[in-house]
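> call design_seq(struct)
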């Protein structure tokens, strides 16, 4: 019964996205498709853009004093973007995975069991001006800049609204301002629903055609979080009487400094240093987190032969940030964790990427400080 209801719900979403164009464009279609030319697409069809990816993964991990675990995993995502007007777009996507907002993986198990497919994102975007973008719904990705997954797992798609503003001071140099309001939970019993808001001013620029700088200051504000519990928490934040002991209003600083062809050789097209810092002023200790890293190779791996190597070191103390959001692969997404990460990506073909990711992590403090090794071997097909 649940599967039937899910299929009906997906059908309704797709119908809402396309019905307007299907009926309103019937006459237009006849005009735009000349007789004997089946290859000409009507304009309303050209307003749809589809994209997705498939990831095949082998993962092995081992905690100290425990047996090594081996897993085969898959991830599949498919999305559509519809141009409603010149300024308005609507997008929706489906992905494998369960209810965990930090993972769209499906582990291969349970004798060929049929995995779940769920709504990954669904939002509207309005661009009233060339320098302003507004988004609302279950937004794909964070509507603010983050150079790493120290605080936010890359699979998280927040729910609420956001605004992204950018102003060019001169060619290749500008300032930006991102903000957002996001719902964390809802209760029918009272009005003290947990939510958060983000304010982020920043700067980015390109100098002398090869120096790239980007930096931002971010304020994370939380309401009705202290004293409550959040779904999908990792269980490492400090609790009092079953609820979160502290508030998590935090301020962060992040930046990246990159150089294009620093040694004037094609083999090394880009090198960059990046960093991120977070502080929660409510608790007197266990309230800081930071990440530093270096990446070399291509700025982005998308074509055959492109490559990128990255090294990251991070520490995220117990109450520096909510333990509901950090990278789920880094010591299970917990706070009170520190360690190393090494990443390598290589373009096997255009839109086919080989990825290797290794984590070496451990708790910052605790009676039983057991380290963990985790290795992931990925092949990603993008379309």
């Amino acid at each position: 019964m649940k599967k039937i209801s899910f299929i009906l719900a997906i059908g309704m979403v797709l119908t809402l996205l396309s019905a307007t164009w299907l009926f309103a464009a019937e006459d237009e279609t006849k005009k735009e498709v000349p007789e004997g030319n089946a290859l000409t697409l009507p304009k309303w069809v050209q307003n749809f853009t589809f994209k997705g990816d498939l990831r095949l993964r082998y993962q092995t991990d081992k905690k100290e004093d425990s047996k090594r675990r081996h897993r085969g995993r898959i991830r599949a995502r498919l999305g559509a973007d519809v141009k409603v007007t010149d300024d308005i777009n609507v997008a929706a996507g489906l992905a494998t995975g369960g209810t965990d907002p930090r993972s769209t993986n499906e582990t291969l198990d349970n004798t060929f069991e049929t995995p779940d497919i769920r709504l990954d994102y669904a939002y509207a975007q309005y661009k009233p001006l060339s320098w302003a973008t507004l988004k609302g719904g279950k937004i794909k990705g964070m509507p603010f800049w983050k150079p790493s997954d120290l605080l936010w797992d890359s699979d998280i798609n927040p729910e609420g609204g956001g605004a992204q503003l950018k102003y060019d001071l001169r060619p290749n140099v500008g300032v930006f301002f991102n903000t957002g309001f996001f719902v964390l939970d809802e209760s029918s019993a009272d009005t003290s629903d947990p939510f958060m808001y983000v304010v982020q001013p920043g700067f980015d620029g390109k100098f002398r055609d090869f120096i790239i700088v980007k930096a931002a200051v971010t304020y994370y504000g939380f309401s009705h979080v202290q004293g409550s519990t959040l779904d999908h928490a990792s269980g490492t934040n400090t609790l009092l009487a079953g609820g979160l002991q502290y508030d998590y209003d935090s301020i962060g600083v992040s930046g990246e400094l990159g150089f294009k062809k620093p040694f004037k050789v094609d083999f090394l097209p880009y090198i960059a240093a990046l960093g991120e810092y977070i502080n929660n002023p409510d608790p007197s200790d266990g309230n800081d987190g930071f990440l530093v890293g270096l990446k070399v190779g291509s700025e982005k791996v998308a074509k055959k032969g492109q490559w990128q190597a990255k090294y990251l070191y991070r520490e995220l103390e117990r109450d520096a940030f909510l333990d509901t959001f950090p990278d789920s692969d880094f010591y299970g997404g917990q706070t009170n964790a520190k360690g190393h990460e090494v990443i390598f990506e290589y373009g096997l073909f255009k839109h086919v990427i080989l990825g290797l990711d290794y984590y070496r992590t451990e708790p910052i403090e605790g009676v039983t400080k057991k380290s963990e090794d985790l290795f992931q071997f990925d092949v990603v097909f993008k379309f």
